[in-house]
Amino acid sequence: MDNTVEKKIFFERTQNVQVLNTIKQRRSVGHVSQEQPSREAIERLLEAGTFAPSHHVTEPWRFFVLTGSARQALGDVMANSLKTRLEQSSHEPIPVANLQKKMLRERAKPMRAPVIVVVAITEVQQLQGDYPIECVEAAGAAVQNMMLAAEEIGLATVWRTGDTAYDPMVKRWFGLKKDDLIVAFLYVGYPMTARPMRIPTHFSVKTTWLS
Ligand SMILES: Cc1cc2nc3c(=O)[nH]c(=O)nc-3n(C[C@H](O)[C@H](O)[C@H](O)COP(=O)(O)O)c2cc1C
Predict the structure, then answer these.
(1) Residue 109 beta carbon below 6 angstroms from any ligand 1 atom
(2) Is the distance from the beta carbon of residue 112 to the nearest atom of ligand 1 less than 6 Å?
(3) Is the ipTM of this complex over 0.95?
(4) Which ligand 1 atom minimizes the distance to the CA of 165?
(5) How far does residue 193's CA lie from ligand 1's centre (Å)?
(6) What is the pLDDT of residue 18?
(7) Ligand 1: which of 117, 158, 185, 195 to mutate, most ligand atoms within 8 Å of CB?
(8) pLDDT of residue 169
(9) What angle, rounded to 10 degrees, do the helices at 3-25 and 133-152 form?
(10) Where in this chain does the record put each Nitroreductase domain (predicted)?
(11) How far apart are CA 167 and CA 139, in angstroms?
């Protein structure tokens, strides 16, 4: 066999094994240290994200990287937006102590990891015409690429959303419009705990073979 071909096949085989192992190993790990991953490490995640597929190569993702006090500023916005949501959905005044406790908890959330990568989509309608869902699908693939890249370089991640991701006040803080989408708050840091065990439902339960 020609030497180059042999090498190429070997390279592809090892690559494949690596990605399968990484997929199977990855778990959401929320308990991470405050040690700051290097800019280079974060850039590797961002780059991995951009290799995700997107229909018509729209590359709909936009990234915001939050470190240091930017996380506190996000916490303030999250706490205030929670206050607004609670006040709007409640028919009676909320006891001040109760509200403050909830806001305090909300404000602290972004401090759970040294880095948060926010994945957003702007101009959904222009990008994907009749099928805006395809932007979300592509951005979701980008998030997964980033999580797998993180796993391979020893970083832990949690993909978080919640009401915050859909809140217009939060979107505005990022300079996003009401109809823009926040797909993920990807919390990134060095793991402090082992990956939790999770065996997914076997694919046979989820699969119909047609032939
Ligand atoms: C779209 C999306 C939103 C998620 N939002 C949250 C969240 O707000 N909070 C959280 O703790 N985990 C969130 N997760 C992570 C899931 O809870 C997690 O992936 C699931 O429990 C499976 O665990 P694993 O990631 O370890 O395989 C989200 C995952 C996805 C795909």
Answers:
(1) no
(2) no
(3) yes
(4) 8
(5) 17
(6) 86
(7) 158
(8) 97
(9) 100
(10) 23-190
(11) 19
- C-alpha span between 113 and 33 (Å, rounded): 7
User: Tens-of-pLDDT digits for all 211 residues of the chain?
Assistant: 455 555 554 555 555 568 999 999 999 999 999 999 999 999 999 999 999 999 999 999 999 999 999 999 999 999 999 999 999 998 888 899 999 999 999 999 999 999 999 999 998 878 777 788 999 999 999 999 999 999 999 999 999 999 999 999 999 999 999 999 999 999 999 999 999 988 999 999 999 999 9
Question: Is residue 187 within 8 Å of residue 160, measured between CB atoms?
Answer: yes
Q: Residue 193 annotated as binding?
A: no
pLDDT of residue 1: 45
pTM, to two decimals? 0.92
Q: What is the 3-state secondary structure (H, E, C) of 44-93?
A: HHHHHHHCCCCHHHCCCEEEEEECCHHHHHHHHHHHHHHHHHHHHHCCCC
Beta-carbon contacts of 133 under 8 Å, excluding residues fewer than 6 positions away, are none
What count of other Cβ atoms lies within 10 Å of the Cβ of residue 80?
A: 17
User: Is 31 labelled a binding residue?
Assistant: no
Largest separation between any pair of C-alpha atoms in the chain: 78
Among protein residues, the one with the nearest Cα to ligand 1's atom 11 is 160
Please give the distance, rounded to the nearest whole angstrom, from the Cα atom of residue 159 to the centre of ligand 1. 5
Q: How far is the CA of 124 from the centre of ligand 1 (A)?
A: 23
The residue written with tokens 């190569």 in the block is 57
